[in-house]
Amino acid sequence: MKHFDDTTKATLEKVAFDEKEERSASFLARDWDILDAHSATEGLEILPIETALKKYEWLKELLFTLVEKDKDSYVKQVASSDVLLGYFIRIKAGVKITLPVYTCYMINTDKFTQCTHNIVISEEDSELHLINGCTANAHVVSGQHLGVTEYFIKDGATLTSTMIHSWGKEVEVYPRSVAHVGKNAKFISNYVAMCSVKNLQMNPLAVIEESGLGEFYSVIYAPEDSKFDIGSTVILKGDGASSEIVSRVVSQGGEVITRGKIIGEHPNGRGAMACNGLLLSEKGYIHAIPELLGKDPHLELSHEASVGMISKDELAYLMASGIEEDKAKSLIIEGFLDLKIPSLPEDLQRQIDALIKETKDFETM
Amino acid sequence: MNDPVLEITDLYVSVENKEIIKGMNLSVGKGEIHVIFGPNGSGKSTLLNTILKLPGYSIDKGEIKIKSKNIQEMTTDQIANMGIGMSFQHPPKIKGVTLQNFLHTINRSEDLNDEIQALSMENFLKRELNVGFSGGELKRAEVLKLYAQSPDLLLIDEPESGVDIENIAVISKAINKILQINMPNKQRERSAIIITHTGHILNYIDADIGHVFMDGKIVCTGHPKSIMEDIKKLGFTGCVECMKREKDVT
Questions:
Q1: Can you tell me the distance from the alpha carbon of B196 to that of A165, in angstroms, rounded to the nearest whole number?
Q2: How far apart, in whole angstroms, are the C-alpha atoms of residue B6 and residue B181?
Q3: CA distances from A142 to A63, A112, A174, A279 (A)
Q4: Chain B residues with CB inside 8 Å of A277's CB?
Q5: Average pLDDT, stretch A36-55?
Q6: Which residues of A touch B149 (CB under 8 A)?
């Protein structure tokens, strides 16, 4: 990234795209331009989607098999885009890589609409960790990011995907993703957004086959004038499929709808959901909408949801220990956003913790 | 004589418009350990919470001075930083804040690690503050907090409630250490107010002055163990009778 100016470097680092971080593979796109797409690891392939489509005849058949082409106007726009921007990532069967893949999309031109289409294939019994940053450069006032991602996670494979967003006040963002999680496979999706954004709307879907696992963790900090409508939907399609959806939302005046839906279709499925919201301001709102749909009597589905302000008792307790009010609030908020993901490798959890810490932007507090 | 660490004069306090403390006076000198007895619901905890100006406690009349400074315009953290530390009877659970992070934020002591070991709290450092702690663990964490704060005046609310004998001994040992109990009285720097309704804590902590708190004020002051013996024999109803007799004499 030596050819980037300091502002751009800082923008990229805010979404964890830091050249100093060791990685198994890397992808970077600025507006329509792909600046980097390389893999440093055997058994792991990363290509611009356009190149991959030329290289693999069969890939064309995969496009829009999980995300429906006419799902909504944003997907239609991606499908009809003149420029085909996106990445193709494939990890071969049995290959396990703990070093993450870093990808990043950056809007660099004001009023630019960036359409992307990504395909990720985790072959049988593989393990891969993705860290995806999406951002707008500091000088960009408005723009749109429309992204389609289709995850094919084959039997026994593990894929974690950590997405970090940092946008501008007038940027609109509409990611659309679907993951198909095979038998005994694991898909862990983490989402972190601690930024201003005009409108961010997404509701990724995971379809979980027999004994598969799908977990969604999201951490949102919504400053004033930002709008988030985020959620996750999981279909427990196979016997013994399980899922967990956890979201922690802090609103400092931002408007947030946080959704979660677990649909159980087969016996022995388990699903748990926790949507917790913290309101720091009289402005804005948090609307938690947890939904459970059971279609079989042998399912265990549960949810909890809470929305409220910082507990007066907790604040008073910390202050009674000599901690000044602002610091006490910060401690509580940081703790609230400090999500521990049980099935994540320890190294990756540490890295994500560090990212969240760096990404935190409490300037309006 | 040194100025008292705490001086309460003609204090009236209400909670949700209900008068709880009704004309109370108390002076705590440097190095003194006061114990306040009183039946459940008599307002003993209200007194401690008011000293720290916790939300919901309204001073209607009178004043509280800490080291000669009126606390009227102070915030809770400012009062704590004047050297006041409280062990809560029911501390809140704070998710996401680890005991370690909390202690690190407030620590003023030089040998906290030794005390963490003495209170067997090593395995709790990475845990969220008070989340899933048993009664004894909560009290040990509270005392560890006081140790980290190293306050000049300890406010200890019902240290023995919900705690087994083994834990009371461990907690009391730590409190005695903070209070420099091994030093001669006059050399002790730290003072304490201990609230109790069972008095069991007196088997472990050697208090200097005892008070009976009833009907919103201190009704009797004397040697803690003598007061305790009387309460054991006659209960708090005995205190009521005694108050009546004294009133008749005057």
A1: 53
A2: 20
A3: 29, 8, 14, 27
A4: none
A5: 96
A6: 321-322
Q: What share of chain A in percent tops pLDDT 90?
A: 81
Quote the CA–CA distance of A119 and B210 in Å, as a whole number. Answer: 75
Mean pLDDT of A93-108: 95
Q: Using the beta-carbon criterion (under 8 Å), do B80 and A338 form an inter-chain contact?
A: no
Q: How far B227 CA lies from chain A's nearest CA (Å)?
A: 31
Residue with tokens 């601690």: A194
Instruction: Return d(Cα A342, Cα A132) in angstroms, integer.
Output: 20
- Any CB–CB contact under 8 A between B16 and chain A? no
Cα A158–Cα A160–Cα A166 angle in degrees, nearest 5: 170
ipTM of the complex: 0.95
pTM for the full model?
Answer: 0.83
A312 to B55: CB separation less than 8 angstroms, yes or no: yes
CA distance A46 to chain B (A): 37
Pairs from B130-137 (Cβ < 8 Å, separation ≥ 24): B130/B91, B130/B92, B130/B93, B130/B94, B131/B93, B131/B94, B131/B95, B132/B93, B135/B161, B135/B162, B135/B163, B135/B164, B135/B167, B136/B162, B136/B163, B136/B164, B136/B166, B136/B167, B136/B171
Res A364 pLDDT > 60 = no
Q: Is B81 close to A322, i.e. CB distance below 8 A? A: yes
Compute and round to an integer the Cα radius of gyration of chain A: 20
- Give the minimum alpha-carbon distance from A247 to chain B in angstroms, rounded to a whole number: 14
